[in-house]
Amino acid sequence: MSHDATSQGTQEGRPASHGGGRKRRESPRKRRRGLKITLGVLALLILAGGGTAYWMYQDLDNNITGVDIDKALGEDRPEKLPTTGQNLLVLGSDSRAGAENQELGGGGAVGGARSDTAMVVHIPEGRTQAVAVSIPRDTLVTRPECTKADGSTMDSAERVMFNSVYSQVGPACVVKTVEKMSGVRIDHYMEINFAGFKDLVDAIGGVTVDVKEPIRDKASGLDLTAGTHKLDGTESLSFVRTRHGIGDGSDLGRIGLQQQFLFALLTEIKSQDLLGSPTTAYKIANSATESLTTDEGLASLTSLTEFARSMNGVDPSSMETIMLPVAYDKRDPNRVVAAQPQAGDLWKAIRSDGTIPESAKKSPATGG
Questions:
Q1: Virtual CA dihedral for 240, 246, 251, 256, nearest 10 degrees?
Q2: What does each of the 368 residues of the chain score in pLDDT, given as a tens digit?
Q3: Whole-angstrom Cα distance, residue 73 to residue 163?
Q4: Taking a C-beta distance cutoff of 8 angstroms, is the pair 50, 20 a contact?
Q5: Which residue from 168, 167, 166 is spatially nearest to 155, judged by alpha carbons?
Q6: Residue (of 234, 196, 190, 203) closest to 45 by Cα position
Q7: CB distance 162 to 198 below 8 Å
Q8: In terms of Cα–Cα distance, which of 225, 314, 221, 220 is closest to 270?
Q9: Which residues does residue 86 pair with via DSSP β-bridges, in sequence order?
Q10: 188-193 vs 207-211, strand pairing mode
Q11: H helices within the chain, ranges in order?
Q12: Cα–Cα distances in Å, from 135 out to 57, 195, 248, 361?
């Protein structure tokens, strides 16, 4: 799931374009390496077609929604990394406004939209590894003062649930909240709507997961025995949403399933011969872009492709996943707060593009 930033043209986190002609002359081997990064692959497949595929390019390009995060946040932000590393905030938005999303597992009759899944993906200098830090949605945070889409101001507030920031103020405020709590500059933003996520999984023919213990969650509709299962789109949504059928029923146990599914999804896409099947490639690309919202710097197939090209050296199997170290809140055991000094050490390592100490990967609250 990112826009080599080693040239002068990448100082703002966006690699310089290499021109359409050069992209078409690349060898299949080089293009296949791009399959390691999901959205970058989707863009490359369309761009590589050229000529008769132009109308498809336009159609997919128009699918992507852009949000001007930089304009909304202004200048009061953390400094950029002192290296060519990048930080990407990835949200899974759980909108229940439409009938399709309400019908999906766990949808219920909840209105509005929430950030159901949140990960800070750190790509260190060198682009050979990546680290994904999951932020539990039940984490109590201080929401900074933010400007809403209508221009009005939302005052700062303490002890608010992390996933409420999205529904109350919007994506720019989620970025600002993450930056304030971590001191980490977010270079790019990517949001995937769950309804489109379902279609994406169905387009690739399902995703295989290994379930260590039975999962039975009436709320999400998930009922799986221990063993290997190939999940379709609806089942995959239930899998990443489930929380009542595992651990202590909190968000913490669910995060492990989300990280497991991310690896399985990337592995499935990587294993498919997408370059040999234009029809499948288009279905996947259409499903992905219809559900995609990004910052303005990534809001086109060209930008996504350039970002993916800088990530060719990253293999999904080498990605490390970490849950933000949290502890149960003393006033409300159903909520968690960032655990110190672990969380502080984790964010410090990411801010400096350094090695994350093992002690910063351990969370007092386990969800077990």
A1: -60
A2: 433 333 333 333 333 333 333 334 444 444 333 333 334 444 343 344 444 455 677 788 888 889 898 888 888 899 988 877 889 998 887 654 443 434 433 333 334 555 567 899 998 887 777 898 999 888 999 999 998 888 889 999 999 999 899 989 999 999 999 999 999 999 999 888 877 778 888 888 899 999 888 888 877 778 899 999 999 998 988 888 786 656 555 566 677 777 788 778 877 876 766 656 677 777 777 887 888 889 999 898 888 878 877 776 676 667 788 999 999 999 998 899 999 999 999 999 999 888 999 999 998 887 65
A3: 19
A4: yes
A5: 168
A6: 203
A7: no
A8: 314
A9: 123
A10: unpaired
A11: 20-25, 28-33, 38-49, 54-63, 69-73, 99-103, 164-168, 171-182, 194-203, 233-241, 251-271, 278-290, 301-309, 342-351
A12: 34, 22, 17, 13
Which of 355, 353, 359 is CA-nearest to residue 341? 359
Take residue 223 and report the two structure tokens written for it. Answer: 């009922």
Cis before 15? omega within 30: no
Name the amino acid, one letter, at 75.
E
Q: Which of 209, 213, 212 is nearest to 237 (CA)?
A: 209
Q: Residue 356 region, left (φ>0) first, then alpha (ψ -120 to 50), else beta?
A: beta
**DSSP string of 114-167, one letter each residue:** -EEEEEEEEE-TTSS--EEEE--TTBEEEEPPEE-TTS-EE--EEEEETTHHHH
Of residues 286, 303, 255, 238, the one with CA closest to residue 66: 303
Query: How does DSSP classify residue 250?
Result: S
Q: Please name the amino acid found at residue 128.
A: T
**CA torsion angle 289 295 301 304 (round to 10):** -110
